[in-house]
What does this fold into?
Amino acid sequence: MKNRILIILLSLLVLSCGTRRNVSKRNTSIKTVKKTSNLKILNSDYSGKTPSNVVKLLKDAEKYLGTPYKYAGNTASGFDCSGFTCKVFAENKQTLPRRSQDQAKEGHEINIKNVKPGDLLFFATSGGKSVSHVGIVHDIGNNGEVRFIHASTSKGVVISSLNEKYWNNAYLFARRIL
It folds into this structure.
Protein backbone atom coordinates (compact mmCIF):
# COMPACT_ATOMS: atom_id res chain seq x y z
CA MET A 1 0.00 0.00 0.00
CA LYS A 2 2.83 2.39 0.87
CA ASN A 3 4.54 1.64 -2.44
CA ARG A 4 1.33 2.35 -4.35
CA ILE A 5 0.90 5.72 -2.61
CA LEU A 6 4.54 6.58 -3.29
CA ILE A 7 4.15 5.73 -6.99
CA ILE A 8 1.01 7.89 -7.24
CA LEU A 9 2.72 10.83 -5.54
CA LEU A 10 5.78 10.54 -7.77
CA SER A 11 3.56 10.35 -10.87
CA LEU A 12 1.76 13.53 -9.86
CA LEU A 13 5.07 15.26 -9.29
CA VAL A 14 6.22 14.39 -12.81
CA LEU A 15 2.98 15.74 -14.31
CA SER A 16 3.19 18.94 -12.32
CA CYS A 17 3.55 22.38 -13.79
CA GLY A 18 6.66 22.67 -11.64
CA THR A 19 8.49 19.77 -13.25
CA ARG A 20 11.78 21.29 -14.25
CA ARG A 21 13.77 21.21 -17.42
CA ASN A 22 16.66 23.57 -18.03
CA VAL A 23 16.05 26.20 -20.66
CA SER A 24 18.70 28.81 -21.25
CA LYS A 25 17.66 32.41 -20.63
CA ARG A 26 17.88 33.66 -24.18
CA ASN A 27 16.48 37.16 -23.77
CA THR A 28 19.50 38.92 -22.31
CA SER A 29 18.11 42.39 -23.02
CA ILE A 30 15.66 41.90 -20.15
CA LYS A 31 18.42 42.55 -17.59
CA THR A 32 19.08 45.95 -19.13
CA VAL A 33 15.37 46.74 -19.04
CA LYS A 34 15.19 45.78 -15.38
CA LYS A 35 18.16 47.94 -14.38
CA THR A 36 17.17 51.03 -16.32
CA SER A 37 13.43 51.07 -15.64
CA ASN A 38 13.23 50.25 -11.94
CA LEU A 39 12.01 46.67 -12.41
CA LYS A 40 9.48 47.60 -15.08
CA ILE A 41 9.26 45.46 -18.18
CA LEU A 42 7.65 47.59 -20.82
CA ASN A 43 6.32 46.87 -24.27
CA SER A 44 7.10 49.67 -26.68
CA ASP A 45 5.84 48.17 -29.95
CA TYR A 46 2.21 47.23 -29.27
CA SER A 47 -0.28 49.17 -31.44
CA GLY A 48 -3.33 48.37 -29.31
CA LYS A 49 -5.09 46.44 -32.08
CA THR A 50 -5.96 42.85 -31.14
CA PRO A 51 -7.17 40.34 -33.76
CA SER A 52 -10.62 38.82 -33.19
CA ASN A 53 -9.24 35.29 -32.66
CA VAL A 54 -7.04 36.61 -29.81
CA VAL A 55 -9.95 38.58 -28.32
CA LYS A 56 -11.95 35.32 -28.21
CA LEU A 57 -9.02 33.44 -26.64
CA LEU A 58 -8.72 36.10 -23.91
CA LYS A 59 -12.48 36.06 -23.23
CA ASP A 60 -12.28 32.30 -22.84
CA ALA A 61 -9.37 32.76 -20.41
CA GLU A 62 -11.23 35.45 -18.43
CA LYS A 63 -14.22 33.19 -17.80
CA TYR A 64 -11.93 31.14 -15.53
CA LEU A 65 -10.84 34.11 -13.36
CA GLY A 66 -11.12 33.01 -9.73
CA THR A 67 -10.93 29.30 -10.54
CA PRO A 68 -8.78 27.69 -7.83
CA TYR A 69 -5.33 26.26 -8.39
CA LYS A 70 -5.32 22.48 -8.56
CA TYR A 71 -2.17 20.46 -8.85
CA ALA A 72 -2.17 18.78 -12.31
CA GLY A 73 -5.61 20.31 -12.92
CA ASN A 74 -6.89 21.12 -16.39
CA THR A 75 -10.63 21.62 -15.89
CA ALA A 76 -12.92 24.40 -14.70
CA SER A 77 -12.86 22.86 -11.21
CA GLY A 78 -9.15 23.71 -10.91
CA PHE A 79 -6.05 24.40 -12.98
CA ASP A 80 -2.32 24.37 -12.76
CA CYS A 81 -0.56 26.88 -15.03
CA SER A 82 0.01 24.65 -18.06
CA GLY A 83 -3.39 22.98 -17.69
CA PHE A 84 -4.93 26.46 -17.89
CA THR A 85 -3.08 27.41 -21.07
CA CYS A 86 -3.87 24.01 -22.63
CA LYS A 87 -7.58 24.38 -21.88
CA VAL A 88 -7.88 27.95 -23.16
CA PHE A 89 -5.94 27.25 -26.35
CA ALA A 90 -7.87 23.99 -26.94
CA GLU A 91 -11.15 25.92 -26.69
CA ASN A 92 -9.75 27.97 -29.57
CA LYS A 93 -8.72 24.98 -31.68
CA GLN A 94 -5.02 25.26 -30.84
CA THR A 95 -3.24 22.26 -29.36
CA LEU A 96 -0.49 22.85 -26.82
CA PRO A 97 1.61 20.24 -25.03
CA ARG A 98 0.51 19.61 -21.43
CA ARG A 99 3.72 20.65 -19.64
CA SER A 100 4.97 24.24 -19.47
CA GLN A 101 8.47 23.05 -20.42
CA ASP A 102 7.10 21.59 -23.64
CA GLN A 103 4.92 24.64 -24.31
CA ALA A 104 8.14 26.68 -24.11
CA LYS A 105 9.25 25.02 -27.37
CA GLU A 106 6.12 25.89 -29.35
CA GLY A 107 5.76 28.82 -31.76
CA HIS A 108 8.68 31.21 -31.90
CA GLU A 109 10.48 33.28 -29.31
CA ILE A 110 9.85 37.02 -29.26
CA ASN A 111 11.42 39.91 -27.41
CA ILE A 112 9.40 41.27 -24.48
CA LYS A 113 9.21 44.60 -26.33
CA ASN A 114 7.23 42.86 -29.07
CA VAL A 115 4.71 40.81 -27.05
CA LYS A 116 1.03 41.11 -27.83
CA PRO A 117 -2.10 39.77 -26.16
CA GLY A 118 -2.31 36.01 -26.63
CA ASP A 119 1.45 35.42 -26.47
CA LEU A 120 2.84 33.08 -23.81
CA LEU A 121 5.21 34.20 -21.05
CA PHE A 122 7.50 31.72 -19.34
CA PHE A 123 8.93 31.95 -15.84
CA ALA A 124 11.36 30.22 -13.51
CA THR A 125 9.41 30.41 -10.27
CA SER A 126 11.71 27.99 -8.47
CA GLY A 127 14.82 30.08 -9.10
CA GLY A 128 17.42 29.28 -11.70
CA LYS A 129 16.70 29.15 -15.42
CA SER A 130 14.23 26.27 -15.67
CA VAL A 131 10.74 26.85 -17.00
CA SER A 132 8.27 26.16 -14.20
CA HIS A 133 5.37 28.51 -14.96
CA VAL A 134 3.46 29.88 -17.96
CA GLY A 135 0.89 32.63 -18.50
CA ILE A 136 -0.94 34.29 -21.40
CA VAL A 137 -0.37 37.98 -22.18
CA HIS A 138 -3.71 39.62 -21.39
CA ASP A 139 -3.10 43.25 -22.24
CA ILE A 140 -0.51 45.97 -22.63
CA GLY A 141 -1.27 49.11 -20.64
CA ASN A 142 -0.95 52.65 -22.01
CA ASN A 143 2.36 52.91 -20.17
CA GLY A 144 3.63 49.67 -21.79
CA GLU A 145 2.93 47.52 -18.71
CA VAL A 146 2.58 43.84 -19.70
CA ARG A 147 -0.25 42.07 -17.84
CA PHE A 148 -0.87 38.33 -18.09
CA ILE A 149 -3.51 35.82 -17.04
CA HIS A 150 -2.37 32.59 -15.39
CA ALA A 151 -3.13 29.97 -12.75
CA SER A 152 -1.30 31.08 -9.61
CA THR A 153 -0.65 28.50 -6.90
CA SER A 154 -1.78 30.92 -4.20
CA LYS A 155 -4.70 32.77 -5.86
CA GLY A 156 -5.92 30.52 -8.67
CA VAL A 157 -6.58 32.11 -12.07
CA VAL A 158 -5.67 35.79 -11.85
CA ILE A 159 -4.26 38.64 -13.90
CA SER A 160 -0.78 39.77 -12.82
CA SER A 161 1.76 42.29 -14.06
CA LEU A 162 5.35 41.87 -15.15
CA ASN A 163 5.98 45.04 -13.16
CA GLU A 164 5.42 43.05 -9.96
CA LYS A 165 8.85 42.31 -8.53
CA TYR A 166 8.21 38.57 -8.14
CA TRP A 167 7.14 38.06 -11.76
CA ASN A 168 9.77 40.45 -13.09
CA ASN A 169 12.52 38.48 -11.38
CA ALA A 170 11.11 35.11 -12.49
CA TYR A 171 10.54 36.09 -16.15
CA LEU A 172 12.51 34.04 -18.71
CA PHE A 173 11.13 34.66 -22.21
CA ALA A 174 8.02 35.00 -24.40
CA ARG A 175 6.76 32.95 -27.33
CA ARG A 176 4.14 33.57 -29.99
CA ILE A 177 1.80 30.70 -30.86
CA LEU A 178 -1.04 32.49 -32.69
